[in-house]
Structures are given as C-alpha cells and as structure tokens.
Design goal:
Blueprint lengths: L24 E14 L1 E4 L8 E11 L4 E8 L9 E11 L5 E6 L11 E7 L10 E7 L8 E10 L4 E11 L5 E6 L4 E12 L1
Antiparallel strand pairs: 1-12, 2-11, 3-8, 3-12, 4-7, 4-11, 5-6, 5-10, 8-9, 9-10
C-alpha cells in the first residue's frame, strides 16, 4: 500500500492536496432535465470516459396517479430493451406507523428480460406528498463497449395508499448498453428534476 504524506503539519492548515492524492471527481454532464409533462428522459451515447455514471432525480411525480416509474437501457438511442437480470428489496411504512413491511420481492425482479425495470410502484401525483419522489442510480460498465454492466438504484416515492415506499434494485445488463431511459409506465413525468453525473476515481 502506498503511503501519501501531506506537506503541512496539521489538517487545519492544508490548503491543497498534492497531485499524488487520488481524490476522484463527479462531473455534471449537460444540463439538469426539468420535467414538465415529459414522456421520458434519455441519456444517450454515454462514453467510456467515465468509470461510473450516477443519475439523481428529485420531486418526481407522474401525470397519472398510481403509475410505475421505470428504467431501461439500449445501444442506439431509440430502442430501450436490453436484457436484464435483477433483484428488488422493498421497504414501506404508512404515515400512521401501523403497517410496515420489508424484504426481497419477486414481483418486479427480472430474469433475463427486455422489459422495463420497474423502480417505483403505485406512485402518487399528490401535489404536496408527491414531491417526496426521488431516486439515485449508480451505473457501472455502461458506455464501456462491453456486456454485463451493472445498476443499483434506490428510490423513495409516496404511494397512492399513503405509504412511504422505498425500493432498492440491483441488477446486471446483458448487453453493451450506452443509453439509459427513465419514464413512467403509461403516463408522463409531470414534474421532477433529473441530473446525470460522470464519475472518475
């Protein structure tokens, strides 16, 4: 293991790290997408210049209450149907703290399927509670020109039955994907902000 030393005597006096210290970086790619009755948000032609991509969404609400939020992957910027295998871990609690649940669910897990990966179910479009809708997704191997990319997405939505609904989805992509699409199942994305970052370490 390499040992890195700082030239300063105390951390409080450190003004800059030596070039030999690998700090990594997150780079915001393009403008944040502000959704307003938007059909889908696509991030296409992702390059091999980043080791990982991260997508953050906030205040995500559907135009149709009870819709499901989804992700899929592709290679050409128009077809999003890459084969995927995934597992879903689910948590929920109602606002009265009288109905909690957790565990692995098979209802939205995929086994070598081209279907959209559901990452949020029965999402409410309530004007106040619905603003809680958020997600963060980590994507490894996407844009690298080879198969078996990976994804790990954590979501939190306000459910139509007055639940805080949290899912964690992990999976692999059996295809050389360089495109990512977010959408609702039947309606549009009524509101929300979605931002793409590239990460180097």
């Amino acid at each position: 293991m390499a040992i890195i030393t700082l030239n300063n005597n105390s951390l409080s006096s450190v003004t800059a790290l030596p070039a030999s210290v690998p700090v990594g970086s997150w780079t915001k790619i393009g403008d944040t997408v502000t959704c307003s009755n938007t059909a889908n948000v696509d991030f296409d032609n992702l390059s091999s210049g980043y080791q990982m991509y991260v997508v953050i969404g906030s205040q995500i609400r559907p135009s149709t209450s009870g819709d499901s939020f989804r992700v899929n992957f592709g290679t050409d910027g128009s077809t999003y149907n890459a084969n995927k295998t995934s597992a879903v871990l689910h948590l929920h609690n109602n606002e009265g703290d009288t109905d909690t649940s957790s565990g692995v669910t098979t209802s939205n897990s995929l086994g070598l399927s081209t279907l959209d990966q559901v990452i949020g179910v029965n999402v409410s479009n309530h004007g106040t509670y619905g603003k809680a809708g958020m997600f963060i997704g980590y994507f490894g191997g996407v844009g690298q020109g080879s198969s078996y990319g990976s994804f790990e997405i954590t979501t939190h939505f306000w459910n139509t039955s007055n639940y805080h609904w949290n899912d964690k989805i992990v999976g692999s992509i059996q295809g050389a994907a360089d495109c990512i699409r977010f959408k609702f199942g039947s309606g549009n994305i009524a509101t929300g902000k979605i931002t793409l970052y590239g990460v180097n370490q």
